């Protein structure tokens, strides 16, 4: 018989998706997308079946892979954009 794992009361564990975080991420993405457009770039994203989101910026047929929204914000600063 396998002993049951007692939940740690100091950690919030849930199987429900964090909708507040996904809404904030969506707002952040749209704000970044607008800022990229002001600099002549296009910011894109795609979410895989496992829930991982990938971002990339494009201009003049050149693509820059951005693993997270934080990296997208850093690249925006590098190209002279601001939020």
Main sheet, how many strands, which sense, barrel? 3 strands, antiparallel
Portion in helices: 25-40%
Q: Nearest-angstrom radius of gyration?
A: 18 Å
Tally of strands:
3
| Terminal Cα span | 56 Å
Structural class: alpha+beta
Which properties best describe this structure?
83 residues, alpha+beta, 3-stranded antiparallel beta sheet, 2 helices, 3 strands
Structure description:
- With 83 residues, the protein is of the alpha+beta class.
- It has a domain at 42-83.
- It has two helices and three strands; from the N terminus they run αβββα.
- A three-stranded antiparallel β-sheet has the order 1-2-3.
- The longest helix has 20 residues, at 19-38.
- The termini are far apart.
Topology:
Layout: H1 19-38, E1 42-47, E2 53-59, E3 62-66, H2 69-78
Antiparallel strand pairs: 1-2, 2-3
Helix pairs in contact: 1-2
């Amino acid at each position: 018989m396998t002993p049951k794992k007692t939940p740690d009361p100091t950690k919030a564990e849930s199987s429900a998706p964090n909708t507040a975080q996904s809404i904030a991420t969506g707002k952040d993405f749209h704000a970044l997308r607008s800022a990229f457009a002001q600099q002549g770039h296009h910011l894109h994203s795609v979410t895989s079946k496992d829930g991982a989101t990938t971002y990339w910026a494009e201009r003049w047929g050149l693509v820059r892979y951005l693993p997270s929204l934080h990296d997208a914000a850093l690249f925006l600063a590098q190209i002279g954009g601001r939020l």
